[in-house]
Sequence to fold (263 residues):
Amino acid sequence: MSTDFKTPTAAARGLGSAKSGTEHHIRQRVSAIALALLVPWFLFAVIAASRSGFDGATAFFAQPWNAILMILTLGAAFYHMRLGMQVVVEDYLGKAGMKQGLLILNTFVCVGLFAATALSVLKIWITASV
Amino acid sequence: MSGSEWTDPRPMSPHLQIWKWHWTMAASIFHRVTGVGNYLGAFLISVWVISIAAGPEAYGVVEGIMLSPVGQILLFFWLTSLLFHFANGIRHMIWDGPKAGFNPKTASAWSVFNFAFAIVAAATIWSLATNLF
Fold:
């Protein structure tokens, strides 16, 4: 005999979707639209900035537009990466603990790399214009 | 999912090794694979950006790694991965927005195009970058 006194509604509540899927999907697409515009520039930028050593790279990011576009690219890319890797972890890791740990690590890695790289671009730009 | 044990007695959908491979499936799988690849490659580019800010010595070390055979191979694969994810990502937006390209023949042909685009564009950009500049 069952000792579960929950009503069917109470038993089912909380087991459905998290109601955050649409928001995640839209964020993924909006960052993708930004990247579709920024990535062609980014490929050009990496090639142009890396062809003449340290001085060339510094001179490239000393240009305001290059610094701005680079920071925008980094922001859109790390945001898009965090959302994408989140889905990969959620899909393949069922084990509690491991999954949450990797989801937190994913956020920390993306936010940390954005902070470090964006600050680097700012430093190059500010140092060059002083 | 609270545990790692699969307790659902219902039949599972066929897994990768049972499916017959087709282009749209390959494009879908590679979209995810290249997404993870782009994630890992972003570490390399991040180190490069940080090294410019760190100074000439640090930049020299990172530039040495990038120009080494291993670095060049990683960069080329990253470029190819990025271009595939880029092309296939644009298709995802066309699927979601105008809702075009779902016809099986179109979808298959478009998948083949995305793979071809990634390889041809990567080779073209690579040769332009190393020869013209």
Observations:
- The helical segments of chain B are 23-54, 56-67, 69-96, 104-131.
